[in-house]
Amino acid sequence: MSAVVVQVQSLRYTPAGIPALNIVLEHESEVVEMDTPRQVKLQLRAVAFGAQAETLSRQGLDAVCEFHGFLTNARNGKGVVFHIQDFSKT
């Protein structure tokens, strides 16, 4: 998923000592649905662990990156969270 980091919380550590970073991503694109162009824009809560978290904590906001990972339920059961497994600047 191509997205921009629009919000970054402070780097934290899990009880096991693993770096963790909560961020908010913003994705914007155009897709065709039933032969009609459609603008897609959304913000998505995301989390990164380990080296990915440390690297992302040093990145500036508003840089377009390509993110790879998976969606899962939020811990509190409200909404979804994108778990970042890899990313690269585009």
From TrEMBL:
Cellular component terms per the entry's GO annotation: replisome
Matches recorded under SUPFAM superfamilies: Nucleic acid-binding proteins
A single GO BP: DNA replication
GO molecular function, one term: single-stranded DNA binding
InterPro entries: NA-bd_OB-fold, Prisomal_replication_PriB
Superkingdom per UniProt: Bacteria
Protein name, entry field: Primosomal replication protein
Source organism of the structure: Hydrogenophaga taeniospiralis CCUG 15921
